[in-house]
Design the sequence.
């Protein structure tokens, strides 16, 4: 499944990209909540309480208690935590889109397979035009 996911990301198909954009826009609030309310606490637990969303470096050399305070003070900040969260959001949205496209492809393949089986099981339609003409020729040849 990981290899399929890598192939999906690298493929660059326009339809896949459009689906990714639409689904990504529709699930933005859900993914943001999932990351901030579910994934961040687990990461903080595993890493000993580190909260990535507040991880930043003030480039003016001053120490600030939070990213919000640094931004309110107008200090230039290197907000690495925001970047990490954006990467996590992207990976979650991309994986959800991958799963949806995989499901749609599975449904398409099943429908195509059913159509092929229906064609294969169809009774013969009767003699072809060539076969009828050959029968007429043979009948006329016998009568002559």
Sequence:
């Amino acid at each position: 499944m990981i290899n399929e996911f890598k192939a999906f990301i690298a493929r660059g198909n326009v339809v896949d990209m459009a689906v990714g954009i639409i689904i990504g826009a529709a699930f933005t609030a859900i993914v943001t909540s999932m990351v901030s309310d579910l994934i961040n606490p687990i990461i903080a637990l595993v890493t000993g309480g580190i909260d990535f969303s507040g991880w930043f470096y003030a480039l003016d050399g001053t120490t600030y208690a939070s990213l919000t305070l640094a931004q309110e003070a107008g200090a230039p900040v290197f907000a690495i935590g925001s970047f990490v969260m954006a990467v996590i959001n992207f990976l979650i949205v991309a994986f959800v889109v991958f799963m949806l496209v995989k499901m749609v492809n599975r449904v398409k393949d099943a429908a195509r397979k059913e159509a092929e089986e229906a064609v294969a099981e169809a009774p013969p339609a009767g003699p072809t035009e060539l076969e009828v003409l050959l029968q007429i020729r043979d009948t006329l040849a016998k009568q002559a």
